[in-house]
Predict the 3D structure of the following.
Amino acid sequence: MRSPASVVEPAPATTTPAALPAPPVHTRRRRSGGHLLLTAVTWLLALFFAGPVLWMLLTSFHSEADAATNPPSLLAPLTLSGYGEFFGANSGISPVRPLVNSLIASVGSTVMVLVLALPAAYALSIKSIVKWRDVLFFFLSTKMMPIVAALLPLYLLANYIGGLDKIWFLLIVYMVMNLPIAVWMLRSFLADVPVEMIEAAEIDGASLMTTLRRVLLPVILPGMAATSLICFIFSWNELLVARVLTGVSAQTAPVFLTGFVSSQGLFLAKVCAASMVISIPVLIAGLTAQDKFVQGLTLGAVK
Amino acid sequence: MSRTGVEQVPPVSQHARTGRRQAWLRRAPLLPALIFMIALTQVPFLASLVISTYHWNSLLPDETKFVGFDNYVTVFTDTDLRSAVITTFLLTATVVIVSVFFGGTIALLVNRKFFGRGLARTMLITPFLIVPVAAALVWKHAILNPSYGLLNGTLTWIWSLFGQQNAPQLDPLSTHPLMSVEASLIWQWTPFMMLIILAGLQSQPMDIVEAARVDGAGEFNIFRFITLPHLRRYVELGALLGSIYIVQNFDAVFTLTSGALGTANLPYIVYQTFYVSNEYGLASAAGVVVVAGTLVIATFVLRTMFSMFRTELVR
Amino acid sequence: MRYHVSLSRRYAIGAIALAVGLVVSACSSSGSAGGGESATQGTGDSSSNSSAGEGASSGTADQSINVIMVNNPAQEDLVKLTPDNFTKQTGIKVNFTLLPENDVRAKISQEFSSQAGQYDVATLSNYEIPFYANNGWLAPLDKYIAADTAFDQADILPAMAESMKGKDGKIYGEPFEGQSSFLMYRKDVFEAKGLTVPSNPTWDQVAELAAKIDHAEPGMRGICLRGQPGWGEMFAPLTTVINTFGGTWFDKDWNAQVDSPAFQQAVEFYVKLIQEHGEDGAAQSGYTECLNDFIQGKVAMWVDATNSGGSIEASNSPIHGKIGYAQSPVKLTKSSGWLWTWAWGIQAASKHQDAAWKFVSWASSKDYELLVAKKLGWAKVPYGKRESTFKNPDFQAGAPFYKAALEAIESVSPENSFTQPRPAAGVQFVGIPEFAALATDLSRDISAVIAGQGTVAAALAKGQKAAEAVGAKYKNK
């Protein structure tokens, strides 16, 4: 909870800051048995939720034989063979291309989403449009439509225009999937910008672009960070569309992972290793920016 | 729609008399995104509408023909589809409600100062940051596998601590398939709910709480009458976002049970019809019905239940 | 809502036009694939026969082909061996996509029906190849076979070769491995218990043995049978049980027989055997899971594909040398093995058909079998397609299952396997496109029964309705 102060600074005092570093509700009062008990419960819950991830991490460093024992062998010797398998030591199938594809599709679509969503959010929040709520509702409702219903037309379209197994086509589909949430989130951030600031800039004769850059950008940079994070995570995680629309050259990491459950002997360690590697970008992004993430989502609720 | 009539252009005076050009200038920044979305969501939808009036099985290209509403008749009489609607509802409701409850409880716990709070919070978040299909694979093979999964392994271990040989061995994927899918999703989504509710807790205006405390209000009453109402919007938001994604869940159902044993939700059934049965016409009809149904429910939910779409938001 | 309605109305006209265009083009592209076939044949003509040199200079040097395969052990071995052998020899780079059986089928049928041309070669089977060929989705191979004498088409087992033909009598596929099914059991465990498995057992004997051997060792169940939904998963072994119990999906006049007493008796037998003495987690266990269970000593018997022998007898398998092989259990018929081949098909829309054939010819060749034998051992050879393999003394010595496998493959015939005439080809499947969906739907319900939800009778009643709808269509043809 370090950054929020910078976000809420320019906002009028009436808006409630989303993640103000507030002193915990009841601490200094009874630091007694009750407190210890609650702490113990919290830690137990933390272990319970992190348990599967820790187990996955441990298993990924075990040999296949040690990975599949009952009871589990916690203290089995550690090895990198699971990771070696994942990187194609034995199979000769390298995960690098799927990983790069995933990176292109998620980063590319995130950037493009921001390019489209920023002006839209600006129009929706600062320069109020009649029926803006309907427009916002339209955006959100498209997000609620199951993407699976669009799979067949998308496939036919891709086949028709030569977009099958092409990363750019996947990138466009991911844009469609993330744009609504991005518009919604960015709008909440932009709503924090006082109209007077913009009007002042307009009276100065600043063009739209300059207004955007000089006045708004510093204010909404944290919002953009949060939005990018969300878009990135959801694109990186996407499986269904990628399964149907990609094959050899545009295959993404999650699709690659599903082909990894092999019929040749045991595969537990190698699947765990693969799962870890594929989750690493999301873990890094999510853990380093967890505050921004929450802020970005919750501003949308309160604004 | 009823509400939009009442709504006024905000009383920012300079804008009141702007001409058409000005109005378009205001809309212009919105247009690229709007056109992009309309083109890429409505065109496939219209294509679905057209395809849904054909009998079209891609494996039987010679039999493709226009059949009008036949596919819709099939969709509405199909028992699999009907049970998929129920499954989707159960899955979404259970996961959202349970993870909001857990998430809220954990948020309250984490909102205290205690030893190692940062680490505990990080640990609590990680499930949400595992790629869903990876999480599902790990659940299926490393945790719920009846022969060597962590679940049965732990049971064996605990029993062996007491010198017992025959620990009970569970096979939840076969005996409680829907519950297994729900459990894995709750595990993934509880952290998400926790994050959002935690943000709500931390944005609580402390002056009010302190004032109440000075007035002699008990901790429970403070929670009941101040904290809980304040959290409402955060809970709604978590539920809304959670629903959006869980209604569409495919990865967990696909990986854990392949839609078997009554776990096939709507996305899985549509996928199955299109991708496995190659019934393009039928899949499109099912897709159209699902979209129409979602829109109706979304409109209802967004407009009536969620305060953020109800209250006046224009400044 | 008016704002976006009016806007979208304007776009709607354009959108509908686009949508109609899309559908029409998609329909016509799949319809015209038959026409495209002759064109591709022409190109295959010009370069394959006359000038191998020209082919090498124009394309193959930096050419690459895309191959989609099921991720079975033999196919995984192929991935390992391709770069250092095939690519080194021909300069053709091969990009593989490996997927589990159910997934790969879905992906391939989508790919081939739309003739998307993403993949040049796919692992098809004797189920798909005939009707794929009739739809014009596959490139005929006769020209290539004639020119490629080293390939030796005459060596391919007749039952396999025959199942690779289209209505026009042309060959559209080449088998990579051929298989029937047989019973594998743990000799060591049965001996320790003083039990013997007959070489031609009946299902009643097997059920009895499964009961006796169940829990012979801690955590070891009696038998592994596929319970995972999917026509190629559960219904491969289950249809053979139905066959030998005297049942069938359709009689020769396309009357659905799914709710017939024989069909029901067979399914009930199968479900009961799995529930009582089958593997743990049976409702989710397919080929892969059973293979793992068997190798790890979690089951004592397993009725499945003959080519499982390779993984079981591999030197790193903990149970190699401990396995006995018997014929697939029967009831009313003489034999009850299935007949299946993972075979290569070349997509009609492929732009690299010459290179694709080179790959197919290499992967299905005698030389490839020898290469696998040298690098990985005889047990791992993708056998069951060539007569010469079975006659090879090295193979006989290195693959202890060869005799049982050959007997299983050779004993499959309409007379040996069925009690009634059938309307379509196929032992463990019905050779019509609708079968995949029909059997997959029913298998899901039966899988649920195995897990304890619903009854066999209810599942079959539902299946019968679906089968009747399919049968009605063929009656009118």
